[in-house]
Amino acid sequence: MRLGQRPAALGLLLLCAAAAGAGKAEELHYQQGEHRSDYDREALLGVQEDVDEYVKLGHEEQQKRLQAIIKKIDLDSDGFLTESELSSWIQMSFKHYAMQEAKQQFVEYDKNNDGTVTWDEYNIQMYDRVIDFDENTALDDAEEESFRQDKKRFEKANQDSGPGLSLEEFIAFEHPEEVDYMTEFVIQEALEEHDKNGDGFVSLEEFLGDYRRDPTANEDPEWILVEKDRFVNDYDKDNDGRLDPQELLSWVVPNNQGIAQEEALHLIDEMDLNGDKKLSEEEILENQDLFLTSEATDYGRQLHDDYFYHDEL
């Protein structure tokens, strides 16, 4: 099961990292070559209720909280935000909200409130019933059959082999990319899905899946050309024509560092008025709306979360 594709543009939350592919995100974010700031806002504020909450803050309170956030991003307290500082802050924001969501899910799934989530509780939350798996028999329902892989991940996350997952183990189950002891499982899971010849690598053909060129077509469609380019230039670091386990990991796990760096560069490019490749508080306040429709503030969400604007982070 793919954990998610690395997007080619901005507007991706860790919370929905597996939902958007590179080409689609780019298409939505830049329509006909024009940047859509409303897409930025929609991508992270999300539902209308959050947008309404953002609007309720008065201008003075917005600035006060924004200045507090700027101060925290500025790690060396020199009065400027660099690409590195912005990128680090955005990555921290991604992880914070991913962990918050996992904690909320844990409470919902723990039906008997005993502090653990059992496999049966997870089943009931997902399907309203417990799905039984036979090791030698595939289920007729393809979606339910795919649930088998979730059980393997559940068992791997359960380090103490107890009857259920603790909060820490549940986070490992929901976000295996964030936990070191799950790395081997993530790689093996990807190999089981994509390594069709069992050689321990993923070739370009296996990477492209079931695609076969239309015999009447003179060339591959655009999306295939994009995928081939990503295989060659983004993932196959040693240029041997196949992805080894570590290269495979960079494909199946969302590259949040790359996303954060891209957003940081985007902000500096748009807001740096004097060309010094960094942002002052004055430049940010001059472009406050742009900053509040970026991942640096989780599209305004951080202004409603005292974890970010409170004096002590």
TrEMBL record:
One GO cellular component, as annotated: nucleolus
Domain spans labelled EF-hand: 61-96, 97-132, 182-217, 229-258
UniProt-annotated stretches for the region Disordered: 141-162
Gene3D superfamilies in the record: EF-hand
Basic and acidic residues bias spans: 145-158
Short name of one Pfam family: EF-hand_5
Signal peptide bounds: 1-25
InterPro entries per record: EF-hand-dom_pair, EF_Hand_1_Ca_BS, EF_hand_dom
A GO term for molecular function: calcium ion binding
Record's keyword annotation contains Acetylation: no
Keywords (A to Z) from UniProt: Calcium, Metal-binding, Repeat, Signal
The keyword Signal is annotated on this UniProt entry: yes
Family stated for the protein in its record: Belongs to the CREC family.
Functional summary from the UniProt entry: Not known. Binds calcium.
Name of the protein: Reticulocalbin-2
